[in-house]
Amino acid sequence: MNEYRSELKRRMWVLCVTGAAAVVAMVWVASVGSGGLCRGPSDATGANTGFIAGFRTGILIAFTGGVLTGILRAARAIGSDDILRRLYIAENDERARLIRDKVGGAGLNVILGTLATASVISGFYSEVVFFTLSSVLLFAALVKGVLKVYYTRAL
Amino acid sequence: MKTRIPELRKKHRLSQEELALAVGVTRQTITSLERGKYTASLVLAYKIAKYFGLTIEDVFDFGEVEVSFNERV
Fold it and tell me: What is the complex's ipTM, to 2 decimals?
């Protein structure tokens, strides 16, 4: 369990640095959004106001919340052997891992299928949307292909 | 896959939580094993069998696996 405790301490440091970076990014995004100190290049298009700005800030708030939860969870586990053991079990449980793998595999296939369908349909209406969707499709397929080759060789 | 885990737990007066902690899985995994929804890995099957001082075949029923394979192939 000492090895896992050391791993959690390392993870806490990484989370602290990531969290701090997220807070800095949030402050920067908020100031761009309000047209304050750091005025962004796309202000004229309205991309830094309204829904898009709210979405950016929301993503960063959710990310920071996740990082804080991770830090608190790790800190609690480091201080108690019982919580440490339970966290280790929760993170390494074989059934939970199988569920994660299945969700990831099936989820990626659903995303690929949906993107392919949406790309074809969008081609009739908008060239920009078509190229955006097909680029994402290509990227997702590439990720799947690379992972498949990696795991075929590794296992 | 059918198992004798519920019967063995009762015999040893163990809760699902206690067995789960002893073999390093969550309580939900033990529940799934007992209901036959999830098939344990070789390592987990070994740990459970060893915990009760039995062999893997004493705890897990492989008859169903053999029948299913013969029916499919």
Answer: 0.85
